[in-house]
Specification:
The protein is of the alpha/beta class. The chain folds into three domains: 162 residues, Rossmann fold (3-Layer(aba) Sandwich); 168 residues, Arc Repressor Mutant, subunit A (Orthogonal Bundle), CATH 1.10.10; 117 residues, Trna Endonuclease, Chain: A, domain 1 (3-Layer(aba) Sandwich). The strands form three sheets. It has a five-stranded parallel sheet with strand order 2-3-4-1-5, with helices on both faces. Helix 12 crosses helix 13. The chain is globular, with a radius of gyration of 25 Å. The chain starts with 5 loop residues before the first helix and ends with a helix.
Amino acid sequence: MFLGRQEELKSMNRRYEKGRFECVVIYGRRRVGKTSLIKEFCKEKPSIYFSAIRGTAGDNLEELSKAIHAYKSPASSHAPVYSSFSAAFDEIASLGKEERLIFVIDEYPYLASADESVSSRLQHIIDHVWQHGNIFLILCGSSMSFMENQVLGYESPLYGRRTAQYKIQAMTYKEIEVFNPQLQSDEQALLYGITGGIPHYINKLDVGRSIDDALLENVFEPSSYLFEEPENLLKQELREPAVYNSIIAAVAAGASKLNEIATKVGMETGACSKYLNVLLNLGILKKETPVMEKQGRKTIYVIEDNFFRFWYYFVAKNMSAIYSGRIYQIYDGTVKKYFSDYMGQIFEKMCKEYLLKYAQDTEILIKEVGQWWGNDKTAHKEIQIDIVGTPAEGKEFIIGSCKFKNEKIGTDELELLKNYSEVFGYGEKYYYYIFSKSGFTEGLKEKEKNGEVKLISLEELYR
């Protein structure tokens, strides 16, 4: 069953119904659901689906020939190979004269790497033939840097030919509710914390009634798909997976600055920076800088991919127990016990998504939401503000705190936020938000009635 991505699907169908040439570029990190979206769009529509492979130009031409033949003669197994990509594209042009035809090239970077002329060949046939017809071309790829630079970029032969592009992102915490509507709010949050809104991971985790059972069967089991997912993905994408594994492990262990990570893995900062950039492009890591400040010495690296973070936080640390079969006996004390600690950072991410996508009637028009950290010169310590919502204009800010704890939050948290806003110092007026998993004390609720703070529970995030 296809779930989610309804806005993208509606948009693509609207374009399809116009009956004119389209060149749609779809890209995003692996496992995010690009191919599922394309296949759902192609259902019951005339389409040629070609997935490029890591191989030679000849290998890919053969696969493309098979895809065209499967459309022309689905009952026949013999597929003659076209003499060139140009000849294959000409055949698609002829087929497109008869009916509205979707032509998909999935994993386009593989094809473009196998034959560097293919982008120019596509450009030529688009300009001289396809743009006058009703071909619906889809170019899809998982290498975000390649798609942005070599397909959408100014230097690409295909620059200016695309009629639409969709950068497919991970689903938000609220969007993934449709996969397991039976779960309670705290369970939905944990599911998001494990999978990061990646549909492929949600499906592979296969939650029934219990997330604990699903984790033990489908993550902490050596024969399961998700147990080896980070390792397999690194092997599939990268030439030196062991080095990247060490870097991710270093970040998971708390190293966040470039020099800290480089020292932890034992390499020069220049070389380490190149590896980090690759992980940034894959969407596994992310750079963070305090809101209102430029990238510099305060910039840190964090694990952006929730599943990688969960895997390195819990699975990598318990390998001996997993392989010996003891994980079932120690799961409560070594994994489940620390879910609240693990979910702290995830909850912050959820609260940011709430403010950007779901909050109604916020006091300011929000430009961006991020964190801020810096030195409190009076207290002689570094402080961190979980949520800072910056204004599209003016100097009014949202300052927020996110607590994923099994206890109610009291008035002391509001006083702390007020002190922190003075250290932050960029605003003329502040609106205070406190997010809590377990609710609020009566004293803090009175402060909300007086208009001093806005309180948002975990349940409210899902309304």
